[in-house]
Amino acid sequence: MKRSAASEYALILLTLLLVLGPWEGVVRAWRISPFIVPPPSAIGQALFVGFRANTYTVHLLYTLAETLLGFFIGAAIGCALGIFVARSLLLERIFYPYVIAFQAMPKIAIAPLLVLWFGFGIWSKVAMASMIAFFPVLVNVITGLRAVDRDAVDLLRSLSATEAQIFRMVQLPTSLPYVFAGLDIAIVFSLLATIVAEFVGSQVGMGNLILQMNFALDVAGVFAVLMILSAVGVGLHLIVVKIQRRVIFWSNTGYVMGT
């Protein structure tokens, strides 16, 4: 297991070097302006200087707080409504078209309204992240609960099992892989939604930092922030999948590096 994990990490590192090496060489050989595409060495220097000066820390923590709070709120509402809607086809027919219509709205157009309603503080970003996290969780909860083996449900009912017992023994275990798939999508999209909201109106956060660096023509700094956000997104994904592996250990779905 450890040898397999070490080999996997080595391949990941090798792939990264195969990308960064030619990138550095092409930029320097063709003398591409750092204001267009900076070399990886300049991006690495920007990362080092930024972390040493704590430039990224406050902004990153602020963005993470907004992302996680919005994710938990949106996921909780999505789970609750999903359980409620999955129990009735009539409710789904009535409720679902409005959900689809709301989801079809371009969220970038909603962001200025959220800033107008909730201000430049944390809550406009939390609201944006919640809206994005809500839909994939809702859909996957409904799909998971509808994927239950009807024969198993009928068997438990014939044994006088209560609805709570049926939910705990059959519906919940069956739906969990679907729920975690929705959570995996939702947490990454919540990060994206937070950044978009910070672009529109924020005084702190990684999105605001990108705008500041753009105005200062610090292209290497922008690339550095993008790499940090990519790493954070991968980290959030891996956390969800790790939890999934712990909770639904009987399922083979999900992927975690080194396992």
Q: Would you kindly provide a written description of the structure presented here, covering whatever features stand out?
A:
With 259 residues, this protein is mainly α. It has a domain at 56-233: MetI-like fold (Orthogonal Bundle), CATH 1.10.3720. Helices cover 82% and strands 0% of the residues. It has 10 helices and no strands. Helix 3 runs parallel beside helix 6, helix 8 (163-200) packs parallel to helix 9 and helix 8 packs antiparallel against helix 10. The longest helix is centred in the last third of the chain and has 38 residues, at 163-200. The radius of gyration is 22 Å and the shape is globular.
Superfamily at the CATH H level of one domain?
A: MetI-like
Largest sheet: none
Averaging pLDDT over every residue, what do you get?
90
Global morphology:
globular
- Give the oligomeric state: single chain
Number of strands: 0
Beginning-to-end CA distance, first to last residue: 7 Å
Which fold name is given in CATH as the topology of one domain? MetI-like fold
Helical segment count: 10
In the CATH classification, which architecture of one domain applies?
A: Orthogonal Bundle
The computed structural class is mainly alpha
The top-level CATH class of one domain is: Mainly Alpha
What's the SSE pattern? HHHHHHHHHH
Helical content class? over 70%
Radius of gyration: 22 Å
Low-confidence stretches: 254-259
Q: What fraction of the residues are assigned to beta strands by DSSP?
A: under 5%
